[in-house]
Amino acid sequence: MKRxxxxxxxxxxxxxxxxxxxxxxxxxxEGEYALSVSxxxxxxxxxEVDGREYFFVTKERFEQExxxxxxxxxxxxxxxxxxxxxxxxxxxxxxxxxxxxxIEVQGAKQIKQIFPEAVLLFVTTPSAEILKERLVGRGTESxxxxxxxxxxxxxxEAPAIPDYDYLIVNDELDECIAHVxxxxxxxxxxxMRRRDFVAQFMKDLxxxxxxxxxxxxxx
Length: 219
Ligand code: 5GP
What we know:
The protein is of the alpha/beta class. Helix content is 46%, strand content 20%. Strands 2-7-1-8-9 form a 5-stranded parallel beta sheet, sandwiched between helices. It has a 4-stranded mixed beta sheet with strand order 4-3-6-5. The protein contains 8 helices and 9 strands.
C-alpha cells in the first residue's frame, strides 16, 4: 500500500544554520524529500530567485491568498508576511513524499494543530554565545538587525522550543544532517504516522481470522 508523506517542520534561530542544513539534506537525499517554497512579502536579497527561495509577492497578493484559503499557514515576522502555499504540500504528501517546511515558530504551531502527526524539529547552536558570534560573524546584518534577531530569539523563539518534537544542536554540520535524517526516518515508523497501514493490516487480518474460524474442522 502506498504511504502518505509526512510533514517535516524545521525551525530554528536565525544564524543556527537551518537553511544550510535543509539545502544539504535535499542534495544528499535527492528526490526523497519535497521542499516547500514559501510566499513572502519581503524584498528578495541579492542572489535570491523568485520561485526558488521564495515566491516574492505584494501585500495585496498575499492577502488574496489568505482570503482564498491558498495558504496552509502564515505568520508575520519582522514587518513581513510569510506563508506556505497549500497546493504543493498537499499534492506532494498525496504522492507519498515527505515535505519539508522551513518556517518560524508561529507557523509551526499552526501546522501542528492542523496536522498533529507533523514532525517538528528545532535547530539551535550549541550555546547562546555561539549564536551571537555566528550572527555577528556573518557580517551580513547591521548591529541593529542583529540585536532585533537576538531579541526575537530570546522572547519568541526559545520559549517555543518545548513544543517541538526534536532539538537539533548544530555543532558539526555533517553530524547534524545525519541526526536530522535519522529523526525523520524514526518518526516515519511511529504508528501514528502509519495509520492507513495499521488500519488496512487490521482489516485484512480480521477477515483472514474470520475465514479460518468458519472452516469446518479437519478430520
Ligand atoms: P528570512 O527572511 O530570513 O528568509 O526568513 C525569516 C523567517 O521566516 C525564518 O525563520 C523562516 O524560517 C521563516 N519562514 C520562511 N517561510 C515561512 C513560511 O512559509 N511560514 C512561516 N510561518 N515562516 C516562514
